[in-house]
Amino acid sequence: MRKFCIIMPAFVMIVSNVAYAEPDSLIFTNDNYMVGEVKTMNKGVLMAETSFSDKDFAIEWEGIKEIYCTTFFLITLSDGRRFNGTISTSGPGTLKILEEDGSETEVAHNEIVFMDDVDRGFWSQLYASIDIGLDLTKANNFRQVSMRSTLGYRAQRWTLDGTFNTLNSSQDETEDIKRTDGGVGFVYFLPKDWYLVTSVDFLSNTEQKLDLRTTTKAGLGKFVLHTNRKYWGFNGGLNYNNEDFSSADSDRNSLEGFLGTELNLFDIGDLSLFTKLVAFPSFTESGRWRADFNIDTKYEMPFDDDFYIKIGLTFNYDNRPVAGASDTDYVFHSGFGWEW
User: Fold this and answer.
1) Strand-strand pairing, 82-91 and 174-189
2) Are 126 and 109 in contact (CB under 8 A)?
3) Domain ranges in the chain with CATH number 2.30.30.100
4) Given this model, what pLDDT does residue 21 score?
5) Which residue ranges in the chain fall short of pLDDT 70?
6) What is the reported pLDDT for 16?
7) Alpha-carbon 34 to chain mean position
8) What is the pTM of this model?
9) Which residues of 264-299 are buried (b: 16+ CB within 10 A; e: fewer)?
10) What CATH code is assigned to 124-339?
11) Number of C-beta neighbours around residue 181 at 10 A
12) CATH classification code of 2-120
């Protein structure tokens, strides 16, 4: 059976035309090959389906020497350019993108940072994750439950995603601790890795006596580093901040600026890391500024990479909290999760 998996050099030309019988073909760096349907490539991993398996194959992008596809993809390059078309190898380390209007573009293999089959419909563009943590101790009857979740949709030129995170902690002879945050964000991609961003976020926590903080941001960002292993970007703009505290006479609203940066490393073996920092200097409350910081580390389970263990920290700072409230609040979360 193995002799059919090891390709002779002449087979390279055959594979390039096999699309008449099968949709997509891959040749690996060890000269093995696979015929099937390529679905997506994201974060350095290509997903492909074959007729002989009921589960998709996950293949490292760097492990693919040649690719020949008839599938129509949304393709993103490391310099921010986006194409709709098919993709095939045109030479050593070089790929050709053929668009619907017949135009061709040649790019280096490592310039491809994202591909998604645009013909797979609405549900294929959705992504989601949820992870839950639980802590129980006999001492003081301590109970703590935490959850983090995301739901998003990815289109050709934009993404829309929402988050919802919550923590509830209780123990005898101590006031309950509650913290809830989340939001909805919209990103529209521009040429040269620039993008427009707008979002509505909310936060409620007992540590800062905050019943509800609602922030509405709008601004401009740019990726300064964008590959199929990592990305790093900056964004900034304006934010309207509305706050309701447990004491009504302390309620506030203000106009702020925001300046943020985020780094996503998603090719550290089975590990990935995401960190984000945003500062909010106030324009209408002289001398006041706030900051939000997040860091998440995720480990994909070896038995199924849809399941993972996540460890994360969320930190908030306000240099002018209301009377009786802390200027900081943080949550350390560890949990077991699933993503789609």
Assistant:
1) unpaired
2) no
3) 2-120
4) 42
5) 1-22, 54, 118-124, 138-139, 248, 267, 269, 305
6) 41
7) 28
8) 0.75
9) bbbbeeeebebbbebbbebeeeeebebbbebebbbe
10) 2.40.160.40
11) 21
12) 2.30.30.100
